[in-house]
TrEMBL record:
<dbReference type="InterPro" id="IPR050379">
    <property type="entry name" value="Type-I_Cytokine_Rcpt"/>
</dbReference>
<keyword id="KW-0393">Immunoglobulin domain</keyword>
<dbReference type="GO" id="GO:0004896">
    <property type="term" value="F:cytokine receptor activity"/>
</dbReference>
<keyword id="KW-0732">Signal</keyword>
<keyword id="KW-1015">Disulfide bond</keyword>
<dbReference type="InterPro" id="IPR003961">
    <property type="entry name" value="FN3_dom"/>
</dbReference>
<feature type="region of interest" description="Disordered">
    <location>
        <begin position="339"/>
        <end position="358"/>
    </location>
</feature>
<dbReference type="InterPro" id="IPR010457">
    <property type="entry name" value="IgC2-like_lig-bd"/>
</dbReference>
<dbReference type="GO" id="GO:0019955">
    <property type="term" value="F:cytokine binding"/>
</dbReference>
<dbReference type="InterPro" id="IPR036116">
    <property type="entry name" value="FN3_sf"/>
</dbReference>
<dbReference type="InterPro" id="IPR013783">
    <property type="entry name" value="Ig-like_fold"/>
</dbReference>
<dbReference type="Pfam" id="PF00041">
    <property type="entry name" value="fn3"/>
</dbReference>
<protein>
    <recommendedName>
        <fullName>Fibronectin type-III domain-containing protein</fullName>
    </recommendedName>
</protein>
<dbReference type="GO" id="GO:0043235">
    <property type="term" value="C:receptor complex"/>
</dbReference>
<dbReference type="InterPro" id="IPR036179">
    <property type="entry name" value="Ig-like_dom_sf"/>
</dbReference>
<feature type="domain" description="Fibronectin type-III">
    <location>
        <begin position="234"/>
        <end position="342"/>
    </location>
</feature>
<keyword id="KW-0677">Repeat</keyword>
């Protein structure tokens, strides 16, 4: 071995994982403190400064490994500096590794083997560092040991005022990957439009994202979450929603959804559906006949705070090219649901001081629109942007007429 006094003085440039590492001189003056720090202290940078040759390199640089994997790393010293591999030692997160895990591969190369690695102690990576026998840092590498993400679950979204959307989800499996994992909420209009990413995570809640504007009404969205880290990626199930469906039910309305009968999915047909509903205390059913082949419908004109029973049935139309109607199925088992009470808020616990006023205005406008729809459209199939535009024209004309009458009375 070379004596400590015979080793050349080495100035090292390195960067804490995730930082710029520009103050290399200060970092070296505090090398002892750094080695006690659990942060990853090296990220692919080697021991050299402008005008100085590189002293050592570690291979592999910044590897990502599955929990339970083993790693053999090498520290290769530039022969020009006269440093023998036998004088080197390794540390992991500031703790010196036993010499029994070392192997001298050549006069200038020392290896270390780390068997059955456990998850990284911090998401920024574990700090594997090669030193000379004077304690100076020669080179380092970040080790990322963890698991690939699992499919995110429990994706739910809600809107406060039809103009925004907040979505929340949970990481899949046990949730812990031990390394930094990025979650991205993506959305697009179901039948057209380009894919977009939610970028506002300022709600302060983990696994939550906020879309503040530029959302369309009466058009379903596809929404999903993608999770990714250095070991892999996973995508949640896609949910489909209309913004109006997640504002919170108006007090006189219920949204009904159902699925196509599994036994009929393999046939070439277009199904049409009927809905019927009744009050809990009544035996009289009201039938909504013109539902068409869609699998959701908003029932309006109901009593606030009242329990209703709802049933759906199906008629396969046009089996194997025939235009003849099929036979109606039996009614589904009744499902009970309650309309909201008129005093309920759309978003309980809201911190927005204007939320009550906004929700009151929203309720009034939407109730007026759906009331107009009941007079100008039939069943559920008439709901569309075109109808909404027609209502806006009608509303503007009625306001204009009201203003003219008011002016003539003065």
């Amino acid at each position: 071995m070379f004596p400590s006094s015979g080793e050349p003085h080495v100035k090292s440039t390195f960067a804490v994982c995730g930082s710029s590492g520009r103050d290399a001189g200060s970092a070296l003056r505090n090398a002892a403190t750094l080695e006690r720090d659990s942060r990853c202290g090296m990220r692919g940078s080697q021991t050299h400064t402008p005008g100085h040759s590189k002293v050592a390199t570690i291979y592999p640089q910044d590897p990502a490994l599955l929990i339970g994997s083993s790693l053999t790393a090498t520290c290769s010293v530039t022969p020009d500096h006269g440093i023998h591999a036998g004088s080197l030692y390794w540390t992991l997160n500031g703790k010196r590794l036993p010499s029994s895990s070392y192997s001298i591969l050549s006069p200038s190369v020392l290896s270390v083997t780390l068997p059955k690695l456990s998850g990284s102690r911090q998401r920024s990576g574990d700090n594997l560092v090669c030193h000379n026998n004077g304690g100076h840092v020669l080179a380092g590498s970040c080790i990322y040991v963890g698991m690939p993400p699992e499919k995110p679950v429990n994706l739910t979204c809600w809107s406060r005022n039809t103009k925004d959307l907040t979505c929340r989800w949970a990481p899949g499996g046990q949730g812990e990957t031990f390394i930094k994992t990025k979650y991205t909420l993506k959305y697009k209009l179901r039948w057209y439009g380009r894919e977009k990413e939610c970028e506002d995570h300022s709600t302060g809640e983990q696994y939550t994202c906020y879309i503040p504007r530029d959302l369309a009404l009466f058009t379903p969205y596809e929404i999903w979450v993608e999770a990714s880290n250095q070991l892999g990626s996973a995508t949640s199930d896609v949910i489909y929603l209309d913004i109006l469906d997640v504002v919170g039910e108006l007090e006189d309305q219920l949204t009904v959804r159902w699925g196509t009968p599994p036994a009929l999915k393999d046939f070439l047909f277009q199904a049409k559906y009927q809905i019927r509903y009744r009050l809990e205390e009544s035996s009289d059913w009201k039938v909504v006949d013109d539902v068409g082949n869609q699998t959701s419908c908003r029932l309006a004109g109901l009593r606030p705070g009242t329990v209703y029973f709802v049933q759906v049935r199906c008629n396969p139309v046009g089996i194997l090219g025939s235009r003849k109607a099929g036979i109606w199925s039996d009614w589904s088992h009744p499902t009970a649901a309650s309309t909201p009470h008129s005093a309920e808020r759309l978003m309980t616990g809201s911190c927005d001081s204007k939320a009550g006023q906004q929700n009151s205005t929203l309720r009034r406008d939407l109730k007026q629109f759906f009331g107009w729809v009941r007079k100008h459209a039939y069943g559920c199939s008439g709901m569309s942007i075109k109808l909404y535009d027609q209502w806006r024209v009608w509303l503007q004309k009625s306001h204009k007429t009201r203003n003219q009458v008011g002016s003539s009375r003065r």
